[in-house]
Design a protein that fits this description.
Largest sheet: 5 strands, parallel
Shape: globular
Distance between the termini: 47 Å
Order of helices and strands: HHHHEHEHEEHEH
Structural class: alpha/beta
Strand order of the largest sheet: 1-2-3-4-5
């Protein structure tokens, strides 16, 4: 829609007003932000603050997506720093398992899978180190059951999220709260009072928690 506006209209409106308009538009996971960045160099600059507002990353569909996004985001942060402009911020992030789509006839070598696993783990951690301090909402979800996917790194639960208000975990045993070993859970109910919660980062602004999980380790007692 922006690209269909008369050429003179964008130049006639003040940048502050355009930034407000673009902020309302960039709430769809990144598609609108990408489209705006291709309109012109002028629009690319004035949308830098808003086009990373909401980001959807699905590595099992696009294996190189994490690396490409981080390269783009880092470059835009550097460009903002060079002009003393406010840096872009990711406020809402949705990320799924990684892993390629493989059919039943594919049998990759163990070394190949190990490399893929380590690459994905490092990329997820690098991504969260870039954006965790600014996030308002975060959704971490498993990929489709029919795909051979890679687990998200356990260290995700060790990264601080000082502004996070809403956390959604879908079919993932992520240690955002203290989790006892699975074998202990299966043998007998754990002593939740004995778990040292100080080893995990606080979520001081969290107001909404959504857990949809088939993992017994994701027990709500640990959140309490």
């Amino acid at each position: 829609m922006i690209s269909q506006l008369p050429a003179g209209l964008l130049g006639a409106l003040p940048n502050e007003l355009l930034q407000e308009i673009f902020a309302f538009a960039c709430t769809d996971g990144g598609y609108t932000g990408c489209s705006l960045s291709r309109v012109s160099s002028h629009v690319r600059e004035i949308t830098r603050l808003s086009r990373f507002h909401s980001i959807l990353l699905i590595p099992h569909q696009h294996p190189d997506q994490l690396r490409q996004f981080m390269a783009c985001f880092t470059a835009e942060c550097a460009a903002a720093d060079a002009t003393s402009d406010p840096a872009p911020r990711v406020r809402h992030l949705y990320v799924t398992h990684g892993g390629r789509q493989m059919d039943q006839t594919e049998y990759p070598m163990p070394s190949e899978l190990d490399h893929e696993y380590r690459t994905f783990q490092n990329q997820v951690l690098s991504l969260l180190e870039l954006v965790a301090q600014d996030l308002y909402t975060l959704c971490m979800a498993a990929g489709p059951r029919s795909l051979k996917t890679l687990p998200l790194p356990e260290a995700v639960g060790k990264i601080p999220f000082p502004l996070l208000k809403e956390l959604t975990i879908v079919d993932l045993p992520l240690p955002f709260a203290p989790l006892p070993a699975l074998d202990r859970l299966l043998k007998s109910p754990p002593d939740w009072a004995s778990i040292d919660a100080s080893a995990f980062p606080p979520l001081p602004c969290l107001t909404h928690l959504h857990i949809a999980s088939c993992y017994p380790a994701q027990n709500l007692h640990c959140w309490a």
